[in-house]
Amino acid sequence: MTTRPWQLPRSLHPGAWWLWAIGLATAASRTTNPLLLLLILAVTGYVVVSRRTDAPWARAYGFYLRMGLVVIAIRVVFATLFGAPMPGQVLVQLPEVQLPEWAAGVRLGGDVTAPALVMAVYAGLQLATMLTCVGAANALANPKRLLQSLPGALYEVGVAVVVALSFSPQLVEAVTRVRAARRLRGRPDRGLKGLRGVAMPVLESALERSVELAAAMDARGFGRTSGQRSTRRSSGLLTSAGLLGVCVGVYGLLDASSPPLLGAPLLGVGIVLAVAGLAVGGRRATRTRYRPDPWVGPEWLVAGCGFVAAATVLTVASSGGADALVPAATGAPPLPVLPALGVLVAILPAWLAPTTTRRAPATASPEQAPAATRFEEVA
Amino acid sequence: MSDIPAIRFEDVSVRYPGSDHPVLSHVQLDVPEGELCLVVGRTGSGKSTLLKAVNGLVPHFTGGLLSGRVTVAGRDTRNHPPRDLADVVGYVGQDPLATFVTDVVEEELAYGMESQGLAGDVMRRRVEEVLDVLGMAAVRNRPLVSLSAGQQQRVAIGSVLAAHPRILVLDEPTSALDPSAAEEVLALLQRLVHDLGLTVLMAEHRLERVVQYADRVVLLPGNGRPLVVGEPRVVLADAPVAPPVIELGRLAGWSPLPLSVRDARRQAGELREQVAQALGPQPPAAALRPAYDPLVAVRGLVVRYGATVALRAVDLAVGRGEVVALMGRNGAGKSTLLAALVGMTRPAAGSVAVDGAAPHELKPRDLVRHVGLVPQEPGDLLYADTVGDECRQADHDADAPAGTAGDLLDRLAPGIHPDIHPRDLSEGQRLSLALAVVLAGRPPLVLLDEPTRGLDYTGKAALVRTLRDLAAAGHAVVLATHDVELAAALADRTVVLAGGEVVSDGPTRDVVMSSPAFAPQVAKILAPASVLTVDEVARLLQEAG
């Protein structure tokens, strides 16, 4: 078998990873079955471990996992303190606080039952799983390259985000510099009084920097366009209407109680409108992209795996399989076979995606210490 | 198209809003294709305005009123904003880091081309070419912030080169660089001019670094007087700004004037003999070192930022009345040492004592009476809306009698109106104001970080006089600088740092004479006689009659 060029080690299109993760997160949003949720967690964990790079953002997964644990803990604490009473075995009896009449409906303390606790853990686990899916996408996809893959019409937005990202370290640097200068003048560099004296110069220098950057970008050809005003207006209108449709459609799709017309159909219309708007707007920009990430076989497969996971869970949920997806608080939860198989498909990217290279920017070599260089400018 | 000049200024005047006199008035200038043209003039004479007018940043970006007409490769900047000129003019500013849009070398090189909509395969090819021209293929995937200052400036130049402009405009490209990094950048520019036939228009304060490469010099006399344009040796023969090599040539009456050390050495045979005779047998400079009353004692100082060791076991002693220059490449630890002396960084090991106190343990109010630092950007020290307010606040901060800072300022830079905003001062005036503010506390130790950035020769001479007076009055002065001419003219002692360690510490004369990178031009011309400045030569000749 010959190796195709796209099978060589490279980084997968960041959009593919995001679609895959969104698919899994959608699946998680429709079930509180702990077996299914743990399966999703295991799938994301395995794929992240086998396909992440050594870039700084690749460490995001562990951070999101820890955040998930915090979410579960908070959920449990809230359920014990404020949860609505649920019949079942009483585990602990907390003293119940009598609230005044205007706070009727809020319960503080009281009996903590096993079903209430189990439901809280299930719900917390669901949220934690969805968070972890986002964490997996963050760990696998280079955030900068994702912004660069935005369609032409959204290019300006992407640039604004990138500039803002690089701006925050500069702001920190400016604060250090101004605080040092205040100390040099014999003034307090801490406390409220110190803060006021620092804010103005920092903002001034931030403004100066952004003007300088804007001039530099303009001098290098940023913002060359070839279109007229009318295309710009129609593109804006189409995109906004489309995005609105997408928002409402997603809501309809995720909220089981909303009318079916509000779900998939509206989402479809929204997507069509938005894509049309972006296409019209994209024609206006004369920009090209340097070494864009290709969208070929593996990208389709990875995104498709996420789609399969979401589709199986959604299908089962809408065709009467809800009992297994949202199990009762008592007894062992059943394992719904079809959704579980669907989620298992999403582990395939661990082999389908090309192996990663070290194309992520190398860290600074020790002899060129960035901290020291930065300080040279600060002091 | 060959007879159209690359850049043409026709009767161009520029006036900024709120200013009563024009920055440029009735400028006539043609820069032909393939020329390296150097723009010189005093601070505030309009060099930057002239350069920014070439790609339309003036007035499209800066505001102000431009009359007359600027044409670049046949395009009128009146109806071509900077972005529409990006394919013919590449503009590189002083601080590359402030102009980077992306964060990786390769992407930064491609950014301009992306904006101009070049095809993918063209971009790919040109990025590879530019990486070779810059000699930076090995660092193509590195984050920009991890590069050295010289590499960053080369990336900035490369990033505009990749778009294949016919004209390169550079505003003080080497002013923030140490001598060897500046050399690196200038060598690149010269190669570009020769190999690619690029037209280059460049402003630079440190003429000694660039004048030998220039085909023509444009002198901006300032105050709206007409430009002087011509051969470097003709224009600089009586310009208010001139590098030491030309001043030496003027003093010795050489004709034609030398532009480089090489030219000068070939004419200097006679002068060398005269100087050697006047000097007589020289005792080693170390033996001449006067005994100073010790003020600063740094012992085994270690400073670290996380895993990075910025200073490792540094020892330094400075006496009252002594002027010490700290030199070394960007990132060698010069600023960190100054920061430690002023108590902004805590030693990880070792000790710092200024006048018996550890600066990092002093409260800000007490600190100002022990040590003062003028930072690289003197404006950081200034907050008030007027110069007068600034001086009053300085008196208050330092518990000095009213009028102290004002009097000091009057002595350092006479004639500054107290109602003016500090931002509207020239670089030299702003430096003087910051110095006056610092000196209000009468600190026995005065530190300056890179004080000559943006100062012209006249401003530098004034600074040298000021600091000499301070030293004579018993202040110890420590300055971090890349400017070898300044160190030669001012410092009794030079300390060279590398990688956070002191690699040489001795009388300036001995240190700079022993290193080609740090030797001032006069020393190179008159070697082996150990003379560092033109003033010194003049004095020797006078003494000899």
In brief:
The complex is a heterodimer of chains A (379) and B (545). Chain A has 379 residues and is mainly alpha-helical.
Question: Can you describe this structure?
Answer:
The complex is a heterodimer of chains A (379) and B (545). Residues 358-379 of chain A have low confidence and may be disordered. The N and C termini of chain A lie far apart (60 Å). With 379 residues, chain A is mostly helical. Chain A is built from 14 helices and 2 strands. Chain A is globular and about 70 Å long. With 545 residues, chain B is an alpha/beta fold. Chain B has 2 domains: 7-238, P-loop containing nucleotide triphosphate hydrolases (Rossmann fold), CATH 3.40.50; 321-345 and 359-528, Rossmann fold. Chain B has 23 helices and 19 strands. In chain B, α7 (149-161) packs parallel to α8 (179-196), α13 crosses α23 (534-544) and α17 (404-412) runs antiparallel to α18. The longest helix of chain B has 18 residues, at 179-196. Chain B starts with 6 loop residues before the first strand and ends with a helix. The mean pLDDT of chain B is 87. The interface between A and B is large, with 61 and 87 residues.
